[in-house]
Design goal:
alpha+beta; 19% strand
C-alpha cells in the first residue's frame, strides 16, 4: 500500500484512493455499535482536509457546502474516533446523484432520516464494521444544518461547555459501552440547551 505521510506529497489521482489516503495515520476508526472515546487529536482536522478535498472535487452540482461537524471538529474535545461530515445540498436535491457520488467513493448508504437522525447518512469503512466517517446529508437552508453548526461553534467558543460535554460523554461511554442509542439519548438535553433552540 502506498503511504502518504505529508500533505505535500503527491496524492493518488483516483478519488477512492485519495479518500483512503486521507485517513492514513489519522487515529480514526471504531467498531459499529461500540461507544469508546479517544483523546482529542490534531490528526482529525488534517484527515478532514483530505476528505474535504476529495468530496469538493467530485461533488455533484447540488452540493453547496461540506462541513466538519461533530466532536472531532472541536479542538480539545475527546470523541468517538469517527469523522462526522455535513454535506449541505440545495433544497429539493434528488438523492440519486448523491447516492451515485458517495457510493462511487466507496461509502455505504446507511439510510434516510428517522427518529434517531435528521439526515440521509452514509458511512465510510476500510474494514468491515470499522467506521471511519459518517456523512450526513442535509438541505443547506435546513434547521438541521443550523443545529449541527450552532452546537459545533458553541463548543469551539466556550471551553467550559466543551469540557463539561467531554465529562458527560465519558460518563455515558462508561455506562453504555455497547448501547449507542442510550449514549446519544444521554447527550440530547446538553446539546439542545446549547445550540440556540
Amino acid at each position: 500500500m502506498q503511504r502518504f505521510d505529508s500533505p505535500d506529497e503527491a496524492r493518488p489521482a483516483h478519488p477512492r484512493l485519495a479518500l483512503r489516503a486521507a485517513f492514513h495515520n489519522a487515529g480514526l476508526g471504531l467498531r459499529r455499535g461500540v461507544v469508546d472515546l479517544a483523546p482529542t487529536s490534531d490528526s482529525w482536522a488534517r484527515a478532514f482536509v483530505g476528505v474535504h478535498r476529495v468530496l469538493r472535487d467530485t461533488a455533484p452540482a447540488s452540493v453547496v457546502a461540506i462541513d466538519h461537524i461533530g466532536s472531532t471538529s472541536v479542538p480539545g474535545l475527546d470523541a468517538k474516533p469517527v469523522l462526522d461530515i455535513g454535506v449541505a445540498v440545495r433544497h429539493g436535491a434528488s438523492p440519486a446523484p448523491l447516492d451515485d457520488w458517495l457510493t462511487g467513493l466507496g461509502m455505504l448508504l446507511r439510510g434516510d432520516a428517522n427518529e434517531v437522525r435528521p439526515d440521509r447518512m452514509y458511512g465510510f469503512e476500510l474494514e468491515p464494521m470499522i467506521r471511519l466517517a459518517n456523512v450526513h446529508v442535509v438541505e443547506a437552508d435546513s434547521e438541521d444544518r443550523r443545529r449541527y453548526l450552532a452546537f459545533r461553534d458553541h463548543l469551539r467558543a466556550h471551553p467550559a461547555d466543551r469540557d463539561a460535554y467531554a465529562a458527560l460523554k465519558h460518563d455515558l461511554a462508561v455506562r453504555h459501552p455497547l448501547d449507542r442509542l442510550a449514549y446519544i439519548d444521554g447527550k440530547s438535553a446538553f446539546i439542545t440547551a446549547r445550540r440556540g433552540e
